[in-house]
Amino acid sequence: MADSKMKLHCGFIWGNSAALFCINEKGLDFELVFVDWLAGEAKTKTFLSTLNPFGEVPVLEDGDLKLFEPKAITRYLAEQYKDVGTNLLPDDPKKRAIMSMWMEVDSNQFLPIASTLIKELIINPYQGLATDDTAVQENKEKLSEVLNIYETRLGESPYLAGESFSLADLHHLAPIDYLLNTDEEELKNLIYSRPNVAAWVEKMKMRPAWLKTVVMKNHIVDLMKQRRLPIRLDSSCHESTVVAQKNAIAIENK
């Protein structure tokens, strides 16, 4: 089992949720260390020199090991603690290769689209930046094409790597959850109009480890609230920024 030295430095973004989700699937004890990356806490000299020179979260500390990048963290946890909690790595080499393939699909096909939409619809407005409506529409169209491929795959097996939930599935849920909790009904329809994709998403959202992750995400949002709320609407604060800030908080509370 993991010892008390395990720490996860994380904040408000989907990659952090994937790391939390994985820890909860494994049932590991750890300390959650909140990093307010929007306020620049991941860019301090101490953080850059001791945790992640790229100034990003999440960062895992497990004993003397320090890891950044969500997929590196979850892969390590799945391998190091394979016999603890949920087995997230298929035992069969062929199925494990399929899992790895779909993790690459996530990185190269799905996540660039999802992250652009999240950036334009949530992060940019939250930071007072304009939303690029053209980029939003273009990426909705790209997402539709990618989800058609997922719909076919998930018609062949309940999960991306086969019959069992794996890291390939785990990494998709957090960004999907963000997309589903925007005010864009078209995004919701893109997912729920595809029965195989919809069933896959709903099964993952009902996993006890994900429900526990949501509670932890809410805790992170509470910490954000303590620093940023109440939000005042005045001449120096554009209304769209306030709405996006409130939406960002609401998303994590769902």
Automatic annotation (TrEMBL):
Its EC number is 2.5.1.18. Gene3D superfamilies: 1.20.1050.10, Glutaredoxin (3.40.30.10). GO terms for biological process: glutathione metabolic process; toxin catabolic process. It is an enzyme of class 2 (transferase). GO terms for molecular function: glutathione binding; glutathione transferase activity. It catalyses: RX + glutathione = an S-substituted glutathione + a halide anion + H(+). Pfam families: GST_C, GST_N. InterPro entries: Glutathione-S-Trfase_C-like, Glutathione-S-Trfase_C_sf, Glutathione_S-Trfase, Glutathione_S-Trfase_N, GST_C, GST_Phi_C, Thioredoxin-like_sf. One of its GO terms (cellular component) is cytosol. Keywords: Cytoplasm, Detoxification, Transferase. Residues 4-85 form the GST N-terminal domain. It is found in: Cytoplasm, Cytosol. Residues 92-231 form the GST C-terminal domain. The keyword Transport does not apply. Belongs to the GST superfamily. Phi family. May be involved in the conjugation of reduced glutathione to a wide number of exogenous and endogenous hydrophobic electrophiles and have a detoxification role against certain herbicides. This is glutathione transferase. It comes from Arabidopsis thaliana x Arabidopsis arenosa.
